[in-house]
């Protein structure tokens, strides 16, 4: 059973040139996080919204050699760049 603590679901941001482009382009407005194996889309969405006090439009997940990755798209009312600055990506 996965704990419902946001910091145990969202492990850390995944930062590359490609993921920075997802964050900077207004129409994409997304961040990429490595998340705990076994976490579901609704759990990831809830954890992200609680931790960063924003609204999430959608969550897509994929499994890579780095672990389970979540691409988190924010609603138009919030900026992924602002969240990125708060967590020190820039």
Word description of this protein:
The chain is α+β, with helices and mostly antiparallel strands. It has a single domain, classed as Alpha-Beta Plaits (2-Layer Sandwich). Helix content is 34%, strand content 30%. It contains four helices and four strands, in the order H-E-H-E-H-E-E-H. The protein has helices at residues 6-9, 17-24, 41-52, 80-86, and strands at 10-13, 30-35, 56-64, 67-74. The protein has a four-stranded antiparallel beta sheet with strand order 1-2-4-3, with helices on both faces. The longest helix is centred in the middle third of the chain and has 12 residues, at 41-52. The chain is globular.
Topology:
Elements: H1 6-9, E1 10-13, H2 17-24, E2 30-35, H3 41-52, E3 56-64, E4 67-74, H4 80-86
Antiparallel strand pairs: 1-2, 2-4, 3-4
Q: Would you summarize the structure shown here?
A:
This protein is an alpha+beta fold. The chain has one domain: RRM (RNA recognition motif) domain (Alpha-Beta Plaits).
Number of helices: 4
CATH superfamily label? RRM (RNA recognition motif) domain
Class computed from helices, strands and strand pairing: alpha+beta
Which range does the strand content fall in? 25-35%
Comma- or semicolon-separated keywords:
30% strand, 90 residues, Alpha-Beta Plaits, alpha+beta, four-stranded antiparallel sheet
């Amino acid at each position: 059973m996965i704990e419902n603590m946001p910091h145990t679901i969202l492990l850390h941001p995944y930062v590359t040139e490609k993921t920075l482009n997802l964050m900077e382009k207004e129409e994409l407005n997304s961040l990429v996080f490595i998340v705990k194996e076994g976490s579901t889309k609704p759990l990831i969405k809830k954890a992200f919204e609680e931790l960063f006090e924003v609204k999430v439009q959608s969550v897509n997940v994929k499994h890579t050699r780095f672990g389970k990755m979540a691409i988190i798209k924010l609603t138009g009312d919030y900026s992924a760049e602002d969240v990125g600055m708060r967590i020190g990506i820039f």
